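re: ur question from earlier - yeah i can do the single chain one, its not a big deal. heres the input i used so u can compare w yours
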Amino acid sequence: MARPPLPAFIADVVDDRQARATLLAGAAALFAAGLDPKVWGPSLTTVQSAIRARPELESYVLIGAVGFAIMLLIGGAIGDLRQARPLILGGLVVLVATDVIGLVVTSGPAFIAVRLVGSAASALVVPASLACVALAYRGVARATAIGFAYAAYGGAQALMPMLLTLIPGERWPGFVVAALAAALALAIARNRVPQLERPGRQERPYVLGTALWASSIVAISAGLLWLGSGWDNPVRLAIVGLGVALLVAFFVAEARRRAEHPASLRVDRRPVTIALFAGVVIAIAQSVPMVLLPTYFAIVPRYGPLFGLAAVAPLFLG
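and the output i got, formated as tokens:
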């Protein structure tokens, strides 16, 4: 019996063998990066209980969210300046190592240090993998392929909280699955991740400046929109101050770049600034129900913490 034809938007993604291999490698790497155990993530019921008992812990959650967003931007800049292939493969190796270490070192300063290293590796893998997928396609197929790749990342982010709460008081299922996923992604990506073209000498300062500017917008937006905290909070003021300092540094670096290379690349950043700010607003608008819905399902319908997280998993995929 003949196989029915695939929809055109899917066929455009899977027909090219080389692009399909790149998509498989990128999606596997993104899935592994999304499984990096966020043991202090706000979606965990244990973290929510701790914040209710000690509201000042909210500051650390926001610092972690802003810090990871800036690490993603820095990782993207590093990926543009260097080759994506060694960043993806090296990041996956680090993820395997940090996940295995997390099974042995479960608390204390060493555990915190290992978790920070794992988050940094994830921040390198995500933008480099997305760049590989994006450059493997053109037109509408590019948007579809990025959607598939990012669905793998979102699915992993939905799965990890469930793994961390699968056995009350035990986090090892999450670390075991994360280590296996990173090892599998490394095997898949080893021969499928292509080398990307590096920017020219005049373009490199622009790449760094873009990362600096975008980081400043993210920090300022997060500080201005922080819910549940007044302006007397020193952490909130520090985040806004960091954003302003990064923005000033960007303007200084940009003025120097244009003076040295007046004919170099220029892009109007004003509309992108508005888009970034709107993106932070939408992210906060989405994150609030994503954090609260598992608690609702756990308390009102009495699903329990595990099935409460499972109930909102389709939203992560969406």
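The radius of gyration is 21 Å. not sure if urs matches, ping me
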